Amino acid sequence: MSLISAQNLTIGFEDRTLYRNLSFDINAGDYCFVIGENGAGKTTLMKTILGLRKPVSGSVTTSDGLKPDEIGYMPQQTVVQRDFPASVSEIVMSGFIGKLGRRPFFTAEQRRLAYSNMERLGVNDLARKCYRELSGGQQQRVLLARTLCAASRVLLMDEPVAGLDPYVTEEFYGLVSGLNREGITIIMISHDIPAAKKYATHILHVKDEPSYMTKDDYFKRGHGADFSIVRDGGDC
After folding, report:
1. Last residue of one domain, picked from the residues 129, 149, 169
2. pLDDT tens digit string along 169-216?
């Protein structure tokens, strides 16, 4: 049964239409790579899935009891965010802010889960360090731990390995793949075709005539052969 379903989406903003008639179903346990050229509208699609932007037409629905607070979003970092003067534990705990309601303090269970997620991602020994003093790879681990505090079933990531060196990139992909094996559904924007071939279950290719298919079908049809790997490319 699908968790997220899009029907006949037309995506765009202001007076510009990016693409039309996109339909897909994301099922529990899928690992979907969203790929496409810079400016094709990958981030716009992700924000539409999250309900942060309305589609021009069509719909995005959830099912199987999926709740908004079970969907986490890890956007690209800005330069200012990389220099944020807070401790690692404070960054991770901030993932619970949307769940506080009227309570002014985090619960003991939330604190336990935060440290469990930090341990899960190998940053528990950095809990008291200042976030801006960490390496790029360490920061991404911290942000992933934060996202896991915000959500438990679906993670959406926008170019999470942008700017990371090859070793750290592969290490990060391994962590995400491990979360996927644990049952977390992953939707990741990426330009990294070799990683898509290695890790994805499905490919959503955003272009004038978008397509959605299993990874095996995508590569059997010869897609991706001339697609550049651009780790730092922007999108809209």
Report:
1. 149
2. 999 999 999 999 999 999 999 989 999 999 999 999 998 889 999 999
How far, in Å, CA of 49 to CA of 68, rounded?
A: 11
**In angstroms, rounded to a whole number, what is the distance separating the alpha carbons of residues 206 and 184?**
23
Residue-wise over 62-96: b if at least 16 C-beta within 10 A, else e?
beeebeeeebbbbbbbeeeeeeeeeebbbbbbebb
Instruction: Out of 149, 169, 194, pick the residue that ends a domain.
Output: 149
- Give the model confidence (pLDDT) of 55-76 as tens digits: 999 999 999 999 888 999 999 8
Q: Is 39 left (phi over 0), alpha (psi -120 to 50) or beta?
A: left
Tell me whether residue 106 is exposed, middle or buried, using C-beta atoms within 10 angstroms of its C-beta: 0 to 12, 13 to 18, 19 or more: middle
Entry pTM:
0.89
The answer to whether residue 8 is domain-embedded is yes
Same-domain check for residues 135 and 178: no
Q: Judge whether 54 and 209 are in contact, CB under 8 Å.
A: no
- The domain in which residue 133 lies consists of 89-149
